[in-house]
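Colleagues,

For the teaching module next term, I've prepared a clean inverse folding example: a structure given as tokens, and then the sequence designed for it. I'd like students to try predicting residues themselves before seeing the answer, so please don't circulate the second half yet.
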């Protein structure tokens, strides 16, 4: 499957942020993904932070004062996130995307529902790579899951967590206690993707196994590691199998799920 994705990427310019690549992909193939990512040009009117968090020139959702970018909670205690799925997706794509939703819904009060009349909703499209806005931006909100490159349920869950308001784990304000960023190995034009954010860490421990964590070789210039866990440098990071238990816990805390 991975070789098929790489081939299609070379032929058609599939643009996939390297931190999205499943960890089982070889280092050589990761380098190919990196080169593909360098061709990524943001759609007109958009820029990207941390590789796959979109923001407009007019309004950035990187900052969320007073939790203003959270999706509202219903009186029944659930948080309903309406969505539209592009008709371009085939049945297998839809199953993959909906599995990513279910991986979040099964352990939280977040419920993804097909949009009927709701004013604010996720418009899930096979655009240019895998990316999302941060939190709820209001109105029709594009979330891109390109096919076939982004068609892993863990990648879908990763982008849905961005849409719920979460940045990458290694962007946490306290990350330097847990990982070393190897600045010299990072592509110079991608260094901005490794800046720390002023995050609300929800009194939760750092999660190496988070689906929101970059991989060890994310945006590497020469194939060397860009993130090394500490004190144990061999701790696995960058999985895209699905949300970790701590990921689900943090969603519940952020949205006061009471679960």
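(Answer key — instructors only)
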């Amino acid at each position: 499957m991975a070789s098929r994705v790489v081939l299609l990427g070379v032929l058609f310019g599939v643009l996939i942020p390297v931190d999205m690549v499943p960890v089982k992909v070889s280092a050589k193939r990761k380098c190919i993904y990196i080169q593909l990512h360098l061709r990524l040009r943001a759609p007109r009117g958009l820029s990207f932070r941390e590789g796959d968090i979109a923001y407009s020139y007019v309004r950035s959702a990187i900052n969320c004062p007073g939790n203003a970018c959270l999706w509202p909670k219903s009186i029944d205690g659930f948080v309903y996130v309406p969505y539209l799925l592009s008709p371009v997706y085939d049945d297998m794509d839809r199953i993959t995307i909906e599995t990513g939703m279910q991986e979040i819904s099964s352990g939280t009060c977040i419920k993804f529902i097909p949009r009927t009349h709701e004013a604010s909703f996720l418009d899930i499209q096979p655009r240019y790579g895998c990316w999302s806005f941060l939190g709820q931006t209001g109105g029709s909100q594009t979330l891109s899951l390109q096919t076939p490159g982004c068609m892993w349920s863990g990648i879908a869950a990763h982008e849905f967590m961005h849409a719920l308001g979460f940045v990458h784990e290694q962007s946490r304000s306290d990350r330097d206690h847990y990982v070393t960023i190897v600045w010299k190995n990072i592509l110079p034009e991608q260094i901005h993707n490794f800046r720390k954010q002023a995050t609300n860490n929800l009194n939760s421990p750092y999660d190496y196994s988070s689906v929101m964590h970059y991989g060890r070789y994310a945006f590497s210039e020469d194939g060397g590691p860009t993130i090394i866990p500490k004190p144990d440098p061999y701790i696995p990071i960058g999985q895209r199998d699905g949300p970790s238990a701590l990921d689900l816990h943090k969603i519940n805390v952020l949205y006061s799920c009471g679960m």
